[in-house]
Design a protein that fits this description.
The chain has 257 residues and is α/β, with parallel strands linked by helices. The protein contains eleven helices and nine strands. The chain has helices at 16-23, 42-49, 62-71, 90-93, 109-117, 135-142, 148-156, 196-207, 214-221, 224-228, 244-256, and strands at residues 12-13, 32-36, 54-58, 78-81, 98-103, 126-134, 157-165, 170-171, 178-185. Strands 4-3-2-5-6-9-7 form a seven-stranded mixed beta sheet, sandwiched between helices. Strands 1-8 form a two-stranded antiparallel sheet. Helix 5 links the parallel strand 5 and strand 6 (126-134). Helix 1 (16-23) packs across helix 2, helix 5 packs parallel to helix 7 (148-156) and helix 6 (135-142) packs across helix 7 (148-156). Bound molecules: S-adenosylmethionine. The site of S-adenosylmethionine (SAM) has 23 residues, from strand 1 and helix 2. S-adenosylmethionine binds at residues 8-13, 37-40, 42-43, 58-61, 64, 84-86, 103, 105, 108.
């Protein structure tokens, strides 16, 4: 008897229409596919029906990975990794032009997205991300609920499409609604940030205490001469009043100083 593990965010998809809708977001025939957290294989099974060139699956749960390995042992095109997605060198193991799917474990979903955004080489080795998040997190990513994650995600990713998934489509049933988002890498970046960690740092300083005005926060990062160079900045603004472009410029500026 298998008991789903809450600690690994195990809410398995059971609604076939939703599974089809996820895979139909992109033509995957003859493509190289990666699936994060395949679980019991609900999405995996549908991916294979579309005849990809290869499939790489990364699952932390030993038992579930073993079961998938047994089920698909005759498929030469599947590579199985019994690993933690946050620890594996994903950039190294995936093939060029991969499409990445994942009904992500909710407890680490934003960390997984940030890992994908932080690929050293850009444009990255993936062409599409089709990922499921808690609706609340998805709204942050697409900028509907603006904050740090919107700024970081939109620096390198463009959002194409999304749809909501009701709790009834899973077993066990989660308390919240989920959202599938289709994201693609922005190939030509407008701002040249050398290290995304600096964007994380800048947004962290500004957004700690998001109701507070930016006047004190900006002094934590820049000296008075540098601050003078920020034209048309209202120091009474709150962090969420400033557009994402301000944070990209501020990070470039921070790196050059
Ligand atoms: N794809 C399956 C589905 O849609 O039914 C399962 C999705 S479930 C929400 C998340 C899956 O990610 C689980 O199978 C869980 O064991 C796996 N998982 C959790 N944390 C992980 C991690 N850090 N690295 C890799 N897989 C993880």
């Amino acid at each position: 008897m298998f008991y789903s593990k809450k600690s690994l965010g195990q809410n398995f998809l059971k609604d076939q229409n939703i599974i089809k809708k996820i895979i139909n977001l992109k033509n995957i025939k003859n493509k190289d596919i990666v699936e994060i957290g395949p679980g019991k294989g609900a999405i995996t099974e549908e991916i294979l029906k579309h005849h990809p060139n290869s499939l790489t699956i990364i699952e932390k749960d030993n038992y579930l990975l073993k079961k998938l390995n047994e089920k698909y042992k005759n498929y030469n095109s599947i590579r199985f990794y019994n690993n933690d997605i946050l620890k594996i060198n994903l950039e190294k193991i995936i093939k060029k032009n991969s499409i990445i799917f994942g009904n992500l474990p909710y407890n680490v979903s934003s960390q997984i997205l940030v890992k994908l955004i932080k690929f050293k080489k850009w444009p990255p080795k993936f062409t599409d991300l089709i990922l499921m998040f808690q609706k609340e997190v998805a709204e942050k990513i697409i900028g509907k609920s603006y904050g740090r994650l919107s700024i970081i995600a939109n620096y390198r990713l463009k959002y194409l499409n999304k749809f909501d998934v009701s709790p009834n489509c899973f077993f066990p049933k989660p308390k919240i609604t989920s959202t599938v988002i289709h994201l693609v890498p922005i190939r030509k970046l407008k701002y040249k940030i050398n290290d995304i960690k600096n964007l994380e740092y800048i947004t962290n300083i500004f957004f700690s205490g998001r109701r507070k005005m930016i006047n004190k926060k900006i002094k934590k990062v820049f000296n008075l001469d540098q601050i003078k160079k920020f034209k048309n900045l209202d120091f009474k603004d709150r962090p969420a009043d400033l557009k994402k472009e301000f944070y990209y410029q501020a990070t470039e500026f921070y790196e050059s100083g």
